[in-house]
């Protein structure tokens, strides 16, 4: 049975998935755990392991110099990952956290020299999602969603989950935006430019809101570089939430003929932005 499990594991990994059988992990890994629940060392030849539920702390150097483990499943019992817990684990690709995770402390040096593809496995319904998400953002780690297949094995998906904070840039519909505000009650972005096919589009619409990843953002501003020197656009429609238009946002758009706005206040802001002569500003 063990031989069959190994063959199945190898086959799934070749197909692009990482799986772990909790039974195989427990039997074929040697865990050194103190009475207070600190994992001090682990010896294993497995490529994927699940840490026992009795562990509360993954101690310093617990996985020191391990060259075989690529996937580690962290149970909900673990609250802390100490410095260099995964020191020089050259094969380590994914550390996935169970949905009932209560992790509250992860050292900034917990993961020293992992593989180039290293990432966290976390889902949005994870109890400690925000803690883990912020850690990944601070450390510039990628993180992916994950779950169990019908056989009870863990499957880490290939979908990258990103986290946005103030200053981050992203694109939606070939329009590029930048996050300008992100609080518990308000999330705002500004249009900063065009990319791809939109560079040659004649009509551009800036939406009222954009839903991206974890939040819905109001599009509240047009930056000074958004349409500068665009030679193709003839008409621009602004979403109702745009309340700031930086100077020269529409500078040298020689073919721009019309800007459609939502209200009188927006119309005034457009006209005061240094609009080129001959451009009509109309309220829809």
Write the layout of secondary structure elements.
Layout: H1 2-14, H2 22-28, E1 29-33, E2 38-44, E3 48-50, E4 57-58, E5 71-74, E6 80-81, E7 86-87, E8 94-97, E9 105-106, E10 111-112, E11 119-121, H3 129-139, E12 142-148, E13 154-161, E14 169-172, E15 175-182, E16 187-194, E17 203-205, E18 209-212, E19 215-222, E20 235-237, E21 244-245, E22 258-261, H4 264-271, E23 280-283
Parallel strand pairs: 2-4, 3-5, 4-6, 5-8, 6-9, 7-10, 8-11, 11-12, 16-19, 17-20, 19-21, 20-22, 22-23
Antiparallel strand pairs: 1-2, 12-13, 14-15, 15-16, 18-19
What does this structure look like?
By secondary structure, this protein is mostly beta strands. The protein is 14% helix and 35% strand. It contains 4 helices and 23 strands. The protein has helices at residues 2-14, 22-28, 129-139, 264-271; strands at 29-33, 38-44, 48-50, 57-58, 71-74, 80-81, 86-87, 94-97, 105-106, 111-112, 119-121, 142-148, 154-161, 169-172, 175-182, 187-194, 203-205, 209-212, 215-222, 235-237, 244-245, 258-261, 280-283. The strands form 5 sheets. A 6-stranded mixed sheet has the order 3-5-8-11-12-13. Strands 14, 15, 16, 18, 19 and 21 form a 6-stranded mixed sheet that branches. Strand 12 (142-148) and strand 13 (154-161) form a beta hairpin. The longest helix has 13 residues, at 2-14. The chain is elongated.
């Amino acid at each position: 049975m063990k031989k069959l499990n190994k063959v199945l594991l190898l086959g799934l990994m070749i197909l692009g998935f990482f799986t772990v059988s909790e039974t195989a992990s427990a039997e074929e890994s040697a865990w050194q755990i103190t009475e207070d629940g600190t994992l001090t060392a682990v010896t294993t030849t497995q490529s994927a392991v699940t840490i026992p539920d009795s562990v509360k702390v993954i101690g310093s150097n617990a996985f020191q110099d391990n060259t075989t483990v690529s996937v580690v499943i962290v149970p909900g019992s673990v609250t802390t990952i100490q410095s260099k817990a995964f020191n020089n684990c050259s094969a380590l690709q994914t550390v996935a956290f169970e949905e009932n995770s209560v992790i509250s402390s992860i050292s900034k040096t917990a993961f020293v020299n992992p593989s180039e593809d290293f990432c966290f496995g976390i889902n949005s319904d994870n109890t400690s999602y925000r803690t883990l998400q912020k850690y990944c953002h601070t450390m510039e780690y990628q993180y992916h969603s994950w779950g169990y297949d019908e056989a009870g094995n863990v499957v880490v998906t290939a979908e990258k989950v990103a986290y946005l904070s103030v200053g981050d840039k992203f694109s939606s519909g070939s329009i590029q935006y930048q996050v300008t505000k992100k609080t518990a009650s308000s999330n705002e972005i500004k249009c900063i430019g065009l990319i791809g096919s939109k560079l040659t589009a004649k009509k551009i619409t800036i939406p009222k809101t954009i839903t991206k990843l974890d939040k819905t953002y109001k599009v509240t501003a047009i930056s000074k570089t958004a349409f500068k020197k665009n030679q193709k656009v003839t008409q621009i429609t602004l979403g109702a939430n745009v309340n700031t238009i930086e100077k020269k946002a529409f500078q040298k758009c020689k073919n721009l003929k019309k800007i459609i706005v939502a209200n009188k206040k927006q119309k005034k802001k457009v006209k005061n932005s240094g609009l080129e002569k001959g451009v009509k500003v109309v309220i829809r």
